[in-house]
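Appendix B, Record 12. Input sequence as logged:
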Amino acid sequence: MARILIIEDDELVRSMLKTMLEREGYEVLEAPDGKEGIKVSNNSPADLVITDIIMPEKEGIETIIELKQISPKMKIIAISGGGRIGAETYLNIAKKFGAAFTFTKPIDRKELLNAIQEVLKQP
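Logged structural output:
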């Protein structure tokens, strides 16, 4: 089964996503911010990265850009609860830098799982 890296600073959201994905049979790696997420990705490459946008240390847009520089074919889904300029603006930027799908929090479980399956099918 595919390996998914979750980069999310909110421990409760990260734990919920991890539990949901493990129940679906995915191997799940996790990181609390983009800086740690890059390290985890370099040590154990994932088939898909799900990253939050607003995080300490290294935020999501910067993380997406770096992941795409390291591995241009990296599959990424971006999530956001918002910020000073609103979730939609951040997520539109994430899409421009390579996120295949974007979701605002709270995330619909079924929609996320469908997006994951669709992204993982892509060559």
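Residues 3-121 form a domain with the Rossmann fold fold (CATH 3.40.50.2300).
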